[in-house]
């Protein structure tokens, strides 16, 4: 885990970037901007401590689906994909199993949503 | 955790029952029947070891949304809600956080799906 600070407006990751880890908001507000968002000023979602973001790319091994930018002065904690996988390996069998099911189901639902839209 | 065996056709839980825990298939096949399924013979989903089922009710604190019946001779391991919560409390902070996000997102998507259908 590694803490990094960003100034308002600074990009944490961009839509389309490879997903190399997930982030935990430690201080300040992070804005998430979906590709459909044409306003660079108003985020679609604002996250505060202790929110986690960027986890779907790690679970799914997909590219980032949104852009994350510091909305205020922020500090975020980065957990690399490798570190997350190690934490998962060390986790309780039942907890790990349930996490696996939930992410699978989420993937299915998102696939269907994309299909139907 | 408690292992229980069921004979083919025996009900493990019924649609509408309170969700007091989750199950892990240890041996044999379990059939899940959604309320829309009028045929008592053909399950909507068949599960084998090491599948987990009945976890949504535990996470969501909702009633069972399907009926689970032994399809063959089966042995399942029951993990009570309380035990699952204890396992979760003992889990790594990041893993627990990600599990929390996934279940929240799944709830949201299911709510929207119900709204739109």
Notes on the structure:
The structure is a homodimer of 117-residue chains. Chain A has 117 residues and is of the alpha+beta class. Chain A has helices spanning 55-60, 81-89, 93-116; strands at 2-6, 11-13, 21-27, 29-33, 45-48, 52-53, 67-70, 74-80. The first copy, chain A, is globular, with a radius of gyration of 15 Å. The N and C termini of chain A lie far apart (37 Å). Chains A and B meet through helix 2 and helix 3 of A and helix 2 and helix 3 of B.
Secondary-structure element string of chain A: EEEEEEHEEHH
- Radius of gyration of chain A, in angstroms, nearest whole number: 15 Å
Helix content of chain A: 25-40%
- Unreliable stretches of chain A: none
Shape of chain A: globular
**Hey, roughly how much beta strand do the residues of chain A contain?**
25-35%
Q: Helical segment tally of chain A?
A: 3
Helical/strand content category of chain A: alpha+beta
| Overall average residue pLDDT of chain A | 90
**Order of strands in the sheet with most strands of chain A:** 1-8-3-6
State the end-to-end distance of chain A: 37 Å
Assembly status: homodimer
Largest interface by Cβ-Cβ < 8 Å:
A-B, 27 and 27 residues
Largest sheet of chain A, described in full?
4 strands, antiparallel
């Amino acid at each position: 885990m590694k803490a990094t600070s960003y100034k308002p407006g600074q990009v944490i990751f961009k839509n389309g970037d490879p997903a190399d880890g997930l982030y935990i908001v430690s201080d300040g507000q992070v804005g998430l901007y979906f590709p459909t968002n044409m306003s660079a000023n108003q985020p679609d979602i604002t996250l505060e401590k202790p929110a986690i973001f960027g986890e779907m790319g790690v679970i799914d091994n997909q590219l980032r689906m949104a852009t994350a930018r510091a909305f205020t002065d922020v500090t975020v904690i980065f957990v690399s994909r490798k570190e997350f996988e190690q934490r998962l390996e060390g986790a309780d069998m039942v907890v790990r199993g349930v996490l696996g099911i939930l992410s699978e189901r989420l993937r299915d639902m998102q696939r269907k949503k994309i299909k139907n839209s």
